[in-house]
């Protein structure tokens, strides 16, 4: 789509305006943001567009559209999806071998599981291998309370963090400021990093990882700006 506007501003209601007219989401809602910091960041994405609008270069706008159009209407489904990750959280499944990988996982993951228990009352069980382990109902109920306490904006960012990292605990650690988004992504890829160190990196895999890391960092930025 060709750029059809000249000036991008932020309205008094924190909506993003193109030549004084508000942007609409795909569902035709007004694109109004919860904080000036996020509104200005979204406006900057629109202002930086060239002669042709490239939606892929506006990830904060995409997340904002999702929060407005989907988070409220599909909130129950989103919470259920995220709880599914909590029931089979990546951090609960340590490797069987080699010992060096297990030591690395335990060094980074165990403190986060302890934190989830101390901060949110969610004591998750762990296992070695990929055999599914049934988590206790009180732990899942605790995670559900945490998710229900989040607003639509944070929940939207949480969904991206969780689905890419495979861990609700890592995502909640980012939301609570326990981890940075990039750090959480690195901790979700301990096994991949270990294998790359042993056998060498694959160029295609590295490119994919870089793309996913950028998405995770954008989601972390989105959550922070929505709370600023």
Q: Any overview of this molecule?
A:
- With 228 residues, the protein is mostly helical.
- It has 2 domains: 8-58, no CATH class; 75-227, ATP12 ATPase (ATP12-like fold), CATH 1.10.3580.
- Helix content is 60%, strand content 5%.
- It is built from 10 helices and 5 strands.
- The protein has helices at 36-47, 59-71, 75-87, 99-120, 137-148, 152-165, 168-175, 181-188, 190-199, 203-227, and strands at 8-10, 16-18, 21-22, 93-94, 127-128.
- The protein has a 3-stranded antiparallel beta sheet. It has a two-stranded parallel sheet with strand order 4-5.
- Strand 1 and strand 2 form a beta hairpin.
- Helix 2 (59-71) crosses helix 6 (152-165) and helix 6 crosses helix 7.
- The radius of gyration is 20 Å and the shape is globular.
- The two termini are 32 Å apart.
SSE topology:
Layout: E1 8-10, E2 16-18, E3 21-22, H1 36-47, H2 59-71, H3 75-87, E4 93-94, H4 99-120, E5 127-128, H5 137-148, H6 152-165, H7 168-175, H8 181-188, H9 190-199, H10 203-227
Helix pairs in contact: 1-2, 2-6, 2-10, 3-5, 3-6, 6-7, 6-10, 7-8, 8-10
């Amino acid at each position: 789509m060709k750029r059809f506007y000249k000036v991008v501003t932020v309205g008094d209601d924190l909506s993003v305006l193109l030549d004084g007219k508000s942007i609409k989401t795909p569902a035709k809602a007004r694109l109004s943001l919860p904080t000036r910091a996020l509104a200005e960041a979204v406006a900057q994405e629109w202002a930086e567009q060239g002669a042709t609008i490239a939606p892929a270069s506006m990830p904060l706008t995409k997340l904002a559209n999702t929060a407005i159009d989907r988070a409220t209407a599909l909130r129950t489904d989103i919470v259920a999806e995220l709880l599914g990750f909590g029931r089979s959280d990546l951090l609960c499944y340590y490797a069987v071998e080699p010992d060096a990988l297990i030591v690395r996982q335990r060094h980074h993951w165990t403190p986060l599981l302890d934190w989830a228990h101390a901060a949110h009352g969610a004591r998750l069980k762990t296992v070695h291998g990929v055999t599914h382990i049934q988590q206790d109902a009180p732990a899942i109920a605790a995670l559900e309370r945490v998710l229900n306490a989040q607003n639509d904006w944070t929940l939207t960012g949480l969904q991206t963090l969780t689905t890419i990292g495979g861990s609700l605990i890592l995502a909640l650690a980012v939301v609570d400021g326990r981890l940075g988004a990039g750090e959480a992504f690195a901790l979700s890829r301990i096994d991949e990093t270990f294998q790359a160190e042993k056998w060498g990196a694959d160029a295609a895999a590295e490119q994919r990882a870089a793309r996913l890391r950028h998405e995770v960092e954008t989601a972390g930025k989105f959550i922070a700006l929505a709370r600023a």
